[in-house]
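Supplementary notes (optional reading)

For those who missed the lab, this is the record we used. Protein: DUF1330 domain-containing protein. Length: 95 residues.
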Amino acid sequence: MPALWIAHVTVTDPESYGEYAKLAGPAIAAHGGKFLARGGRFVQLEGKERPRNVVARFPSVEAAVACYNSPDYQQALSHARGASERDLMVLEIDE
């Protein structure tokens, strides 16, 4: 079943986070991920607000987790650590 990769992010170092973004996109695409939303308009109704929200669709939970654990994504993630506060989850969706 397909899955959504959902990230809520507060960027604290835009330059380093920009490096993350440059590398993360290709890593996500290489694992079948397709961005549905990146930093668009949102309304926070409950919980902690983060100014950047990203949703990507993957063929499966396993594909999304494999992406996260891949060397290419981990290289990208090294630029986000210390440059952002992030919450990331993968959610299987019904179709």
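If you only remember one thing from this example: The first helix runs from residue 14 to 30.
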